[in-house]
Specification:
Elements (H helix, E strand, L loop, with lengths): L2 H32 L4 H6 L5 H11 L5 H13 L13 H36 L4 H15 L2 H15 L15 H35 L2 H8 L4 H39 L4 H11 L2 H29 L7
Length: 319
């Protein structure tokens, strides 16, 4: 790939993300006007007088027009100030980065586990004629892909946390509290997030591997008597990874979205759980910071996809 063309592709991805950034952060600012009541009502409670409510709204700037509030937020953002949380008065940037670390841990553990399980199974069944294993896996993955995520969460919580008592039903332990405790609390949320991705990657991977195994260059490699492991790694895996890289990028976005359900159900203090709490409490500063992180992840993921294409297939050209 030509260096200039590749640089332009990355720049294009960044430019595509700019309007998304303004749309989602402006929508978050508009929530204050769209939702009934005001943040001051939630902070002060139902017994507060109108004078107290007006004073607190003025303190946080909620009495100003939407465009003025949004402009002030942008100015503070470019000065590195995302404000303070509405109730605890903690730095929003510090809190969101901490919560994002929890969500990213769950997402990448789920993605890694899905790839480690799905790719070998896809290779195994693609290399063999259709049999009982492929039939079982096709049926299981079809069921997993058709069941709503919230049903999976409830079912797995009942089976693994209540019935088998093999995992905590909720809560979280940071890596600083011990890796064993961290993984113990993470395993059930990771299982709920990763089960769909495992089925998804198995179906995509098997289709790609079956197609590649029928190509002439693979048949020639087999005719030469090359070892099976060499054919798989050198001639099958690389041509098949293009589609998988694309779906890996989409999978990361889907995992971050799925964290809203999983974190809320298992009381995991990630950005999904925090976003829901921010909407309920009308903590707009926190919600805007979370959406900012989401936009940045969106841009970075698709830049990584472009890089992946260049690494996997040097013939890729960017117009």
């Amino acid at each position: 790939m030509k260096r200039g063309g590749f640089g332009r592709a990355i720049l294009a991805r960044v430019l595509y993300g700019i309007p998304v950034f303004f749309i989602v952060t402006f929508a978050a600012a508009a929530l204050t006007d769209l939702m009934p009541g005001s943040p001051a009502n939630i902070i002060l409670g139902g017994s507060a007088t109108q004078e107290q409510i007006d004073r607190l709204n003025a303190q946080y700037g909620y009495d100003q027009p939407l465009l003025i509030r949004y402009w002030h937020w942008l100015v503070r953002l470019f000065h590195g100030d995302l404000g303070q949380t509405l109730f605890s008065h903690q730095s929003v940037a510090q809190m969101v980065l901490q919560r994002a670390g929890v969500t990213f841990e769950l997402a990448f553990l789920a993605l890694g586990a899905a790839l480690i399980i799905a790719i070998p199974l896809a290779l195994l069944t693609a290399m063999r004629p259709p049999g009982i294993l492929e039939l079982i896996l096709r049926g299981v993955t079809s069921v997993i892909l058709s069941v709503p995520s919230f049903v999976i969460v409830v079912l797995f919580a009942f089976v693994f946390a209540v019935w088998l008592a093999a995992a905590p039903a909720g809560g979280w332990a940071s890596p600083g509290q011990g890796l064993a405790a961290n993984l113990n609390y993470a395993k059930l949320p990771v299982l709920c997030l990763g089960i769909y991705e495992t089925a998804f990657f198995y179906r995509i991977g098997r289709t790609e591997f079956v197609t590649t195994l029928q190509e002439d260059f693979v048949l020639v490699a087999r005719a030469k008597g090359l070892p099976t492991w060499y054919i798989l790694l050198r001639h099958v895996m690389r041509p098949s990874l293009g589609s998988l890289v694309t779906f890996m990028g989409l999978s990361i976005s889907r995992l971050l979205g799925g964290s809203f359900i999983v974190e809320s159900f298992f009381l995991v203090p990630g950005i999904g759980w925090t976003a829901i709490q921010s909407v309920a409490s009308k903590d707009i500063a926190t919600l805007q910071a979370i959406l900012l992180v989401a936009v940045l992840v969106y841009i970075v993921v698709f830049i990584i996809i472009d890089l992946g294409y260049a690494i996997i297939d040097p013939r890729v050209r960017v117009s």
